[in-house]
Amino acid sequence: MIKYNNLITYPPAPILKHIIILYVFSAFYRRFKITLIMEKFVDIPKIFEILESYYPTHVMQARYQGQPFKVLVACILSIRNLDEITFPVADRLFQIADTPEDIVDLPIERLKAIIKPINFSESKAENIKKISKIILEQLNGEVPATMEGLLAFYGVGRKTANLVLSLGHNIPAIAVDTHVHKVTNRLGYVKTKTPEQTETALKEKLPQPYWIKINPLFVTHGKQICKTGRPWCDICPIIDYCNQIGVNPRKIVFKEA
Length: 257
What we know:
Elements: E1 2-4, E2 7-9, H1 13-32, H2 44-54, H3 59-64, H4 68-78, H5 83-96, H6 100-105, H7 108-114, H8 121-138, H9 147-151, H10 158-168, H11 178-187, H12 195-205, H13 211-224
Antiparallel strand pairs: 1-2
């Protein structure tokens, strides 16, 4: 207000309105320490370009691309197992039997012994044997190239089916596991609660040329840097495009020698 000749006058209404808004906002800022953060643009082409240079080849992609039966078996073995255990066991198995016919001819006890380091090895050996027999006897030795055909196998879920389609058959498909779900949500590219919802959202939003690439790249990134819990944001190569949704990053501390 302004005092003039003992009269009290107030600023024009529009100015007064802005003064009140600024006052209220400053009060909230002091009370709750509000921080304004500008949303980052999730540049998908740039993100993939960076990650492809950062992680040249994923293990599954390097070993079994274009070989749907090997991708299928390796995926079954990988459930509830680390890659460090899965792939040496898979390689050892494929040196002995790498086709449905070979697996069917392999005695079940020997198959169990070969994959023994794998968690749930006995039940997985039985399942791999049954699936191989179905492929050989009912599908002319060919691994299905459709989602429906793959999901008909016991123990095969959408993630495994999508990996067989994308890496094995080179058919555009998005294989979403916990890492792909986690990274895409932290980026702010999708806002979903489950891997299944993420798959649906990505199919609607992600350009098809990236469908096959997203699993090997985001899984590797999710394991090495964008870790569950507290990720290594300080050394993340795509931090400039990440909104860090729901993230409590680790801090790298350099100690003096």
